[in-house]
Amino acid sequence: MEYIIKKSFFFNLILNFFFFIIFISYRECKFSSLIKSNDVKGNVTFISMSRTAETRLVSNVILLNMSASHQSQCINKCSKTANCTSYNIFKDSQNVFQCQLLSENKYFNSNQLEKIVGWAHVSLQSIPCDRSPCKNNGTCQPDYSQNTFFCICLTKYIGEFCETELNKIISLPIKNMGCWKDDLNKAMVTLEGSS
Predict the structure, then answer these.
(1) Model confidence pLDDT, tens digit, residues 23-69
(2) So what CATH class is 40-129?
(3) Is the separation of the CB atoms in 106 and 98 below 8 Å?
(4) CATH homologous superfamily for 130-190?
(5) Rounded CA separation 102/87 (Å)
(6) What is the dihedral of CA 33, 38, 39, 42, to 10 degrees?
(7) What is the 3-state secondary structure (H, E, C) of 67-110?
(8) Where in the chain is the domain with CATH 3.50.4.10?
């Protein structure tokens, strides 16, 4: 009986330790969507990054070139560097990570991504922009400080999501010296002409 109790005690102890390790691992891997989040528990700041393999963002705005023994050092340095929203990373022949910290990312400059074997581009993940909320080929611009986004519309579209074609508005009589605001006062367009 004593052997069964000891065996059961140690089994429960090992099982509880295993679940504790899983809980700690889960807690440390739980992410929010901001790189400079106020959601800090202890000394951990939660971030969510989006990695694009075999790709590098060609940027004229490199905040810092650095070498690191582990890729987590690049994430850490980016999270502590003002204006850093992404980085390019490459593991060289000496197994050292080469990182380029950037103030631009794939959401702002998707046309500057280039395929390069061995490189990866890692951007602060912007969940609203991942869903492509901007209509009519509008460009989604994340606002990291507010955990939101805004759309930059092509010339002939307006609206919060670039959902309204400007031609439809131009066909209306022009009033108020050619100024127009949408119902939410979010966009203001100056139309040529006057009434």
Answers:
(1) 333 333 333 333 444 444 454 445 667 788 888 888 878 999 999 99
(2) alpha beta
(3) no
(4) Laminin (2.10.25.10)
(5) 5
(6) 130
(7) EECCHHHHHHHHHCCCCCCEEEEEECCCCCEEEEEECCCCCCCH
(8) 40-129
Region 111-133 average pLDDT: 80
- CATH 2.10.25.10 segments of the chain: 130-190
Please provide residue 99's backbone torsions phi and psi, each rounded to the nearest 5 degrees.
-120, 140
Q: Does the reported pTM lie above 0.70? A: no
Q: From CA 53, how far away is CA 91, in angstroms rounded?
A: 12
Cα 188 from chain centroid (whole Å): 28
Cα distances from 7 to residues 15, 17, 47, in angstroms, run 12, 15, 42
| Contact in structure between 104 and 61 (CB atoms under 8 Å) | yes
User: Following DSSP, what letter does each residue of the chain receive, concatenated?
Assistant: -HHHHHHHHHHHHHHHHHHHHHHHHHHHH---S-TT-S-EETTEE---EEEEEEEEE--S-EEEEEEESSHHHHHHHHHTSTT--EEEEEE-TTS-EEEEEES--TTT-GGGEEEEEEEEEEEE--HHHHT----TTPEEEEETTTTEEEEEPPTTEESTTS-EEHHHHHTSPP-GGGEEE-TTS--EEEPSS--
* ∠ CA 75-85-139, rounded to 5°: 145
